[in-house]
Structures are given as structure tokens and as C-alpha cells.
């Protein structure tokens, strides 16, 4: 089937649908929803059999839906309508939710229902639900919709609230008044729910030291032996760039903030909370002064308190977890993670498993922190070198076999950081973006010119880097990019990785595998030292960062400021590619 995606952006849900439908043999092209005329032109060029809207922020023009079948992928149960669907589901503490495929009509979300898939609501943020349950549900609902359309015999269900299976309702746009935290009345659990319902957008508005901020990524502190002696709403600690608020019944961490009204040289995008508040905190009243709480990765057992990097050991296997918001890794985070890897390698372990975070494995350098730096070019250079140091630390592990367990998506340098390990495992929903060029023709580093051809060959490496398209985990396995795509659930995947790691650590052939790895590394080094790969890559990156072509800096600015799309790139919009001959 010829399917045109009309979408606000190429987010994780859209990418997953894109790769999965193409694998099923559908011809898919993408058009960003810029304005009516551009959308109408895309329809005329592609002549789709179906228009799919997986992520829209406005209605499809009547000039399109009147003449073409348009299916809206709505993140709600049957009958749910409105722009804040998942926000309300979290705030109302729903036990289950769903995704529904609705045919576009004049009234928002009021068209005939082609398919609906429900799932249990996990206690997590809106963005996490989107990346996991909602994306899985959308894929299932879209597949069912396509099968029903292709059958030619299915009649979609009209929206009729008298029907017992239509349990949703209209939900208006959630306002900041409805999201507002009442520090004198709200428990930690209620505050957490409010922050989760607004993450990743729009955030929860809060006043701190006389300035307005949006709060993101809340985590309840569970390692409190006694009540906090501070007024609810006051900041009592920082750790890894996050700030900790006192609450009525404990404390809650918030990792990121965004200014409500950026002025002058202030930035209007998300940044680590402590970095953004630095000046306000140092000049704030005593109640707002902070005490830094350093915490080594191995000090506190997993799950007892929040921290970005955590470590634990079982049966001579070390597990290193790193949970960086949205997968972005700034210079200091790379340095802390490199030190954690180095520390783990000094322990009595045979296998080191890099677990990443639940939501993301890694997306490489931290574009927001770079944009906010005094010299973005210099900070880009510092950040990429810190990433390279981390990759080198992983590659040079002669005493351990290093495994990667990808539980979340990976992009750009994060993909190649994973390839620095000996074996790479990924869950089946994981999406890979093993390329850099979409960020202003960035060349990339992280030893990719060594690691990628070594796994897939020179020709396949070029094919992966050129199209700028995402890959499913199954495609990544088929191309040799990773070792194994696993079909397990989230928890089942972790258990499988643990079993694999323990089996490898205890196997009779472990010493032989380790020896073979080290012989291969020495041979590779003799053919061409890693330092040469790094030098060659960084020569190209210097041109990106400090050269005359500003493409990288322009693309980065557009990305972090979330500026509206001006066009759809041709590698996504196949209907706009020039045809030769």
C-alpha cells in the first residue's frame, strides 16, 4: 500500500511505524505538516492510497480528508478526544489506557473507529508511555487498521457514546492551573504525577527564587531515614545536575528545567536544573541554599536513590546503569561514565554489562548543553573528545568481556559507543539512527570509522551512514550492526542479559574468548592504531565545529529551540526526490 505519513515531526513513534511498515512491504513517504498548501502538494505528488497521521498538532485540512482516507493515530481509548489525552490519563491515575485509529472528519477525533488497542498504565512519565506502550499500541492498531482496509469487507465503528465499549470522553487542553503544584497540600506522589503528566511537554510551571521555570523529569527520593526539616517546595540538595525539593512527606528530585520567559541571553530550552539555577541559588535566601551530595556509583544499591550512574555486581559480573535524560551526554557526564567504567574494570569481574537507561541507550553529545555554552564550537570539541575517551575506555578492556544491553533507542554517537563493546544485544522495539549527517552534515567520531566497518564491512558501513534513515533492531541484527535482537518484555530482556552474562562469565571457554579478543585487538592496532582513526575523524569534526560552513551550528540551533520545520528533507519525502532519466 502507498502510505503518506503527515506528521509534525519524525519522533520515536513515527520512526517505529516507518521502519515496521516498510518491513511489511508498504511504500511509505513522509511529509512534515508545515501548512495546508504543502500538505496538499505532497498528496498530489505521492498519490497515496492512505494518509496516516501518527503525530499531529493541528487538524488535517478538509481539502485532503474529503477526498482521501486519512487515519489519525490517537493516544487514547475509544471515545477519548482532545489534545491532552495522556496528560489526563496520568493525572486521573487510570489503570489502563489505549491507542485508537480514527478516520479524519470535520470534528476533532470524532470519526469512525478502525481499530483500538488497550494496555495497562505503567507508573511513569508521558514521554516514557509514548516511547513504549503507546508506540507498541499504535503499531498494533495501525497493522489491524491496514488489514481491515485491505480486506475490503470491514465496516469501521461509528463514534456512539451509547455503545458500552466506548468509554472515553472529551478532554480539553490541560492548563497550567490544573498542573500547578500545591507544596502545602500535595504529597510526593501527587507532585510526581503532575510532573510526569507534563513530561516532555509542556512541563509544570513553578517559581524558583523569583523566576518562572518549567519542571521536568521528577523522581521521588526513597532513601530518607527521617522527615526533611525544610519547608515544602524548598531546595535541599543537588546531585548530577538535578535539584531535590522538600515535600510534605519526603522529597522529590527534578533533573531539568526550562525558563518560562527567556530574555536577553537566556535560553528557552531544557537544561540540567542545577546548571540553570546556579546564579539564583547562590544569591537566594538560606532556605534555597543547596548542599552538594556526591554519590559514587557503587555506594548505594540500585533503586534506593536517584543518580545518573549506578553499579552493582553479581557472580563476577558488573552491571553499569546510566540514565541520561533523553539520551544526551554532556562533557561531564561522559567523564563520569568513563571513570565509572574504569572503576568497574578494576574490580574482580569477568564480564561488564553496560545497561544504559530504561528510556534511552545514548544519543551521543549533548546539543542543549553545547548550545548554552559560552563557545558552542569549543564545547562541541570538549564533548566529542570526552565521548571518544569513553569509547576508548570501553574498547581497551583486556581483562573483561564487555556486553551492551540496549533497552532504549540509540542515535548518532550513542550507536557507535555501543559498538565499542564486544557484544551488543537490543530489545526488538529499539530504533537505531547510526548516522550523523542530519545534524548539519556532521562527520562524527567515537571511532566509528574503525568500529562500523569492522562489524558490517566497508560497503555496508557506507550504506548505513548515507541514507540518514532509522533502523529497527531486527534490521540492525540482519546487517550485523548488533549481535542479537531479543523479543522479550522489558523485564524479561534484563533477565535474559543477566543469564547470558553469568553463563559467559562461568563458561569453560571464557579465557579462550578473552584471549582471542585481545589477539584481535593487537592485530588491529598493528594495522592501524586507534589514535589514527581518532585523529582522522577529529580533523573532519574540526571543520564542522570551527570551519566556514555553519551547517552544524544552524542545525543544532534549530534542533534545541524546536523551531517549526520549514521543509521535509528529501531522504524522508521520497515523493519530492528529483527523478533522473
TrEMBL record:
InterPro entries: ClpP/crotonase-like_dom_sf (IPR029045), Enoyl-CoA_hydra/iso (IPR001753), Formyl_trans_C (IPR005793), Formyl_transf_N_sf (IPR036477), Formyl_transferase-like_C_sf (IPR011034), HoxX-like (IPR047180), NiFe-hyd_mat_HypX/HoxX (IPR009188). Residues 174-259 form the Formyl transferase C-terminal domain. It comes from the Bacteria. PANTHER family: HYDROGENASE MATURATION FACTOR HOXX. This is Hydrogenase maturation protein. It comes from Neptuniibacter pectenicola.
Amino acid at each position: 500500500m502507498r502510505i503518506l505519513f503527515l506528521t509534525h515531526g519524525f519522533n520515536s513513534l513515527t520512526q517505529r511505524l516507518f521502519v515496521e511498515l516498510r518491513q511489511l512491504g508498504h511504500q511509505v513517504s513522509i511529509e512534515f505538516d508545515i501548512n495546508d498548501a504543502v500538505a496538499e502538494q505532497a498528496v498530489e505528488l505521492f498519490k497515496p492510497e492512505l494518509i496516516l497521521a501518527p503525530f499531529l498538532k493541528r487538524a488535517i485540512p478538509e481539502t485532503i480528508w474529503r477526498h482521501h482516507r486519512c487515519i489519525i493515530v490517537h493516544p487514547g481509548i475509544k471515545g477519548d478526544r482532545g489534545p491532552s489525552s495522556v496528560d489526563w490519563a496520568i493525572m486521573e491515575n487510570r489503570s489502563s489506557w489505549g491507542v485508537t485509529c480514527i478516520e479524519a472528519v470535520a470534528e476533532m477525533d470524532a470519526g469512525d473507529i478502525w481499530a483500538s488497542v488497550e494496555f495497562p498504565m505503567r507508573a511513569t512519565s508521558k514521554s516514557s508511555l509514548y516511547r513504549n506502550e503507546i508506540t507498541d499500541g499504535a503499531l498494533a492498531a495501525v497493522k489491524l487498521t491496514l488489514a481491515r482496509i485491505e480486506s475490503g469487507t470491514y465496516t469501521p465503528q461509528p463514534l456512539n457514546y451509547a455503545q458500552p465499549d466506548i468509554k472515553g470522553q472529551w478532554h480539553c487542553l490541560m492548563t497550567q492551573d490544573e498542573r500547578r503544584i500545591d507544596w502545602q497540600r500535595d504529597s510526593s506522589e501527587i507532585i510526581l504525577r503532575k510532573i510526569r503528566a507534563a513530561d516532555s511537554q509542556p512541563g509544570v510551571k513553578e517559581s524558583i527564587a523569583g523566576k518562572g521555570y518549567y519542571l521536568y523529569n521528577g523522581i521521588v527520593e526513597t532513601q530518607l531515614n527521617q522527615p526533611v526539616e525544610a519547608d515544602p517546595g524548598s531546595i535541599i540538595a543537588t546531585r548530577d545536575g538535578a535539584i531535590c525539593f522538600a515535600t510534605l512527606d519526603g522529597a522529590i528530585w527534578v533533573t531539568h528545567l526550562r525558563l518560562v520567559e527567556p530574555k536577553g541571553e537566556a535560553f528557552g530550552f531544557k537544561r540540567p536544573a542545577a546548571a540553570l539555577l546556579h546564579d539564583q541559588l547562590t544569591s537566594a535566601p538560606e532556605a534555597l541554599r543547596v548542599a552538594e551530595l556526591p554519590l559514587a556509583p557503587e555506594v548505594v544499591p540500585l533503586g534506593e536513590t536517584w543518580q545518573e550512574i549506578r553499579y552493582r555486581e553479581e557472580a563476577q559480573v558488573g552491571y553499569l546503569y546510566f540514565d541520561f535524560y533523553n539520551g544526551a551526554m554532556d562533557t561531564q557526564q561522559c567523564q563520569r561514565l568513563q571513570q565509572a567504567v574504569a572503576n568497574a574494570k578494576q574490580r574482580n569481574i569477568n564480564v561488564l554489562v553496560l545497561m544504559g537507561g530504561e528510556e534511552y541507550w545514548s544519543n551521543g553529545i549533548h546539543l542543549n548543553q553545547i548550545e548554552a555554552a559560552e563557545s558552542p564550537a569549543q564545547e562541541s570539541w570538549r564533548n566529542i573528545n570526552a565521548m571518544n575517551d569513553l569509547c576508548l575506555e570501553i574498547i581497551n578492556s583486556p581483562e573483561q568481556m564487555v556486553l551492551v544491553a540496549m533497552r532504549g533507542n540509540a542515535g548518532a554517537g550513542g550507536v557507535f559507543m555501543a559498538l565499542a563493546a564486544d557484544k551488543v544485544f537490543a530489545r526488538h522495539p529499539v530504533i537505531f539512527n547510526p548516522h550523523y549527517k542530519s545534524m548539519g552534515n556532521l562527520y562524527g567520531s567515537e571511532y566509528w570509522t574503525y568500529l562500523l566497518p569492522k562489524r558490517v564491512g566497508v560497503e555496508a558501513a557506507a550504506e548505513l551512514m548515507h541514507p540518514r534513515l532509522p533502523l529497527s533492531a531486527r534490521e540492525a541484527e540482519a546487517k550485523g550492526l548488533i549481535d542479537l535482537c531479543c523479543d522479550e518484555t522489558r523485564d524479561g530482556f534484563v533477565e535474559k542479559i543477566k543469564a547470558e552474562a553469568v553463563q559467559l562469565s562461568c563458561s569453560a571457554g571464557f579465557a579462550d574468548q578473552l584471549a582471542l579478543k585481545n589477539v584481535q585487538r593487537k592485530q588491529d592496532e598493528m594495522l592501524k592504531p586507534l589514535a589514527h582513526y581518532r585523529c582522522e575523524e577529529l580533523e573532519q569534526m574540526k571543520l564542522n565545529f570551527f570551519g566556514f560552513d555553519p551547517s552544524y551550528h544552524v542545525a543544532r540551533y534549530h534542533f534545541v529551540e524546536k523551531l517549526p520545520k520549514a521543509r521535509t528533507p528529501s531522504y524522508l519525502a521520497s515523493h519530492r526526490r528529483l527523478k533522473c532519466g
